[in-house]
Design brief:
Number of strands: 7
Distance between the termini: 21 Å
Radius of gyration: 13 Å
Strand content: 35-45%
Number of helices: 1
Length: 105
């Protein structure tokens, strides 16, 4: 629904399609892929986690977006820990370095 990557021009189309469902079902977090970079967004009270399976680390331009709390062009993945009280996200690059951590309650 949001992207600081090359598909950022599609944001309004996807937002119009899904925002009503997110409100209706009180969605807290949305996990997605297809943009080939690592990104965490927090617009409209939702948490958007991009690049679950891995980043290509290609030459795609990542822009600075107001909604993006973290966005980087790098090889990597997101490690997710879920308990009954919290969700921990760690963005880790291919060398094992933790690039960004956030906890959702």
């Amino acid at each position: 629904m949001f992207s600081a990557g090359k598909r950022n021009d599609k944001t309004s189309d996807v937002l119009n399609s899904f925002a009503g469902l997110f409100e209706k079902y009180k969605v807290d977090a949305y996990f997605c892929a297809h943009e080939h970079h690592l990104e965490y967004d927090e617009p409209l009270g939702y948490h958007f986690v991009q690049c679950i399976s891995g980043s290509k680390g290609d030459t795609t331009t990542v822009t600075q977006a107001d909604f993006a709390k973290f966005a980087i062009q790098d090889f990597g993945f997101v490690d997710v820990l879920i308990t009954s009280k919290k969700l921990l996200l760690q963005y880790i690059n291919e060398g094992g370095k933790i690039l960004f951590i956030t906890t959702l309650k």
